[in-house]
Amino acid sequence: MKKILTYLVVALLIATGLNACYYDEVATFEGVPTNVSLKNDVQPIFDRDCNMSGCHDAGPAHSPSLVKEKAYKDLTSGGYVNTADPENSVLYLSVNGGGMPAGRAPLSENDKKLILGWITDGAKNN
Question: Per residue in 47-106, pLDDT tens?
C-alpha cells in the first residue's frame, strides 16, 4: 500500500510539473490588424510603456500626453497621426525604430502593428 501511495504521489508531482511548464502561445499578426480599439488595444500599450512620470504622463515632460484622459485629443490635434499615410505618422515612426519608448525595451512587433492598425482604421476614439 505504501509503495502504491509513493508511486501515486510521484506521478502527481510529475503531472503537476509538466502542467506548470505549459505556456500560452502568443499570437502574432500576419499583417496590419483591423478593428483596432484605442481603449482596448492601444491605450494599454501606452499605459504599460509610455505614460509614466517624466515621459508622456498627464503633465508630460515630452508631448503628447498619453494618459487615458488626454491621449486621443493630444495625438489627433497635435499632428501625431496621419490617417492618409499611416506608416508616416509621427506616432508610428516613433515606436517603429524611432527610439520610443526611450530608455525601455522596444515595443513588440504586435504592439507596433496594433498602433499602425489603429491609425489605418482612422484613429477613432473607440
Answer: 999 998 889 999 888 899 999 999 999 999 999 999 999 999 999 999 999 899 998 899
Least Cα distance to 83 among 116, 111, 113 occurs for: 116
Q: Report CA torsion sign: 79, 80, 81, 82.
A: positive
List the domain boundaries for the chain: 38-120
Decide if 119 contacts 92 (C-beta within 8 A). Answer: yes
31-46 pLDDT, tens per residue? 899 999 999 999 999 9
Write the single-letter amino acid at 6: T
Separation CA 65–CA 56 (nearest Å) = 5
What single letter denotes the amino acid at residue 13? L
DSSP code string of 55-111: SSSSS-SSSSP-STTTHHHHHHHTT---TTSGGG-HHHHHHSSS--STTSPPPPHHH
Peptide bond into 86 cis (omega under 30): no
pTM of the model: 0.78
